[in-house]
Amino acid sequence: MKREVDFELDLGIDVTLVYYITEYPEGTYVEVDWLYYKSGKDKHDMSFLLEDKGFYEYMQEIASEDSYELMT
User: How far apart are CA 68 and CA 42, in angstroms?
Assistant: First the structure.
């Protein structure tokens, strides 16, 4: 299942995190896909930020929290 979470980064930048939830017999898997910000009708890719391990873990945490809220 594809999910999108809107939130604000530092400096007031509104971004959208796109991730997928996959159900397996052993449990639920959350996979971060990409990150973008909107400017009018355009989407600007910010996925390069995911190359930073700490930032990726932060995005994984946001996705996990969102998926948990969805499941409960």
Answer: 30
State the number of CA atoms in the 13 A half-sphere of 5 facing the CB: 22
Map tokens 């995911």 to a residue. Answer: 50
Over the stretch 12-44, which tens digit does the pLDDT of each residue have? Answer: 888 999 999 998 999 889 999 999 998 677 889
Q: Which of these, 70, 39, 9, lies nearest to 19 by C-alpha position?
A: 70
Q: Can you list the alpha helix ranges (DSSP code H) found in the chain?
A: 53-71
Asked whether the beta carbons of 39 and 16 are under 8 A apart, the reply is no
Gap between the Cα atoms of 67 and 50, Å rounded: 19
Helices vs. strands in the chain: H and E counts, helices first: 1, 4
